[in-house]
Specification:
- The chain is an alpha/beta fold.
- The protein folds into 2 domains: 1-30; 33-283, Divalent-metal-dependent TIM barrel enzymes (TIM Barrel, Alpha-Beta Barrel).
- The chain is 47% helix and 13% strand.
- It contains 13 helices and 8 strands.
- It has helices at residues 4-27, 41-46, 48-58, 73-82, 94-99, 101-111, 129-148, 170-177, 189-194, 199-205, 244-249, 251-254, 270-283; strands at 34-36, 62-65, 86-91, 115-118, 152-156, 183-188, 212-215, 258-261.
- The chain has an 8-stranded parallel barrel with strand order 1-2-3-4-5-6-7-8, surrounded by 4 helices.
- Strand 4, helix 7 and strand 5 form a beta-alpha-beta unit.
- Helix 7 (129-148) packs parallel to helix 8 (170-177).
- The longest helix has 24 residues, at 4-27.
């Protein structure tokens, strides 16, 4: 039989194990959750300040911009500060990266961005393998200028980067032909899933290359499209087919620091959609 000392020791050990388990479970959750503001683009066009306030009131602490809607960098910074938010990154159209990079960098410094992200590669720039090599060279060139300014350049994927071209997968070509110190990647979980790819494969092959994720879900009834289509559908995070827990559990390998909810289109109010996504993510353990 167990004496009192042994009994108390067993109880203490059980309590400690329970506390450790609770601590471990609490550790395996997301910290600050961000929103890619493209989700509320129509609302921002009508009420920029009010939309940011609603996003902050939902609980989001970080934002990624996709346009400033004629606001100055100082005005953007001010509305973020009023709502106790930060914007670690912004999507900048490739046309502006080519023609206005000094102004883009200056605005990033004022607002407080750490990352300047290319969100899209135009169709005329990605017809052949040589075109993709030119894009890789442009990314390296841009990445060097951005790095020299104390910032980091990155590229955000869709699914067309995974369509084989000239016997190669363009996305793989971009990863191999760009300097990992100059060009990081922002992985969009919706589009990489749509292309039939495994995010963890890229985390394992290119560790530390992925400081940002787009946390975007696909409806369960969606047919499996191969490449971008106009009828692509979206779901609030946690209500679709993307296995976020699996990805999040290995995010450290990818170097992930920022998680941005995005829902390109919503059937109802985008504010309701971002609330569902935020609440599901806050509850998620992995």
């Amino acid at each position: 039989m167990m004496n009192r000392r042994e009994f108390m020791g067993a109880v203490s050990a059980t309590v400690l194990l329970s506390r450790f388990a609770a601590f471990a479970a609490d550790e395996h959750k997301l910290g600050n959750i961000g929103l890619q503001l493209y989700t509320v683009r129509d609302q921002m066009a009508k009420d920029f300040d009010g939309t940011i306030a609603k996003v902050a009131a939902t609980g989001y602490k970080e934002a990624e911009f996709a346009g400033y809607f004629s606001r100055t960098p100082q005005q953007v910074k001010a509305v973020l500060e009023r709502n106790h938010m930060v914007a670690p990154s912004a999507h900048i159209p490739i046309e502006d990266l080519r023609a206005k990079l000094p102004q883009v960098i200056e605005a990033a410094h004022v607002i407080g961005h750490e990352y300047i992200v290319n969100p899209w590669i135009n169709q005329e720039d990605r017809g052949s393998l040589d075109d993709w090599k030119k894009i890789a060279a442009f990314f390296n060139e841009t990445g060097r200028k951005v790095k020299d300014a104390g910032l980091q350049f990155a590229h955000h994927n869709h699914d067309f980067e995974f369509k084989p071209t000239g016997g190669q997968v363009p996305y793989d070509l971009l990863l191999k032909e760009t300097d990992p110190n100059l060009v990081k990647m922002e992985m969009d979980l919706y589009w990489i899933t749509a292309a039939g790819q495994d995010p963890l494969k890229y985390f394992n092959e290119y560790p530390g290359r992925y400081p940002m994720l787009h946390v975007k879900d696909r409806p369960t009834k969606l047919a499996h499209p191969i490449y971008v289509t106009e009828d692509a559908k979206f779901a609030p995070v946690g209500r679709g087919v993307v296995d976020f827990k699996r990805v999040f559990a290995h995010a450290d390998k990818g170097g992930v620091r920022h998680y941005y909810v995005e829902q390109d289109y919503t059937e109802g109010s985008p504010f309701e959609a971002i609330k569902i996504s935020y609440e599901d993510l806050r509850k998620m353990r992995f």
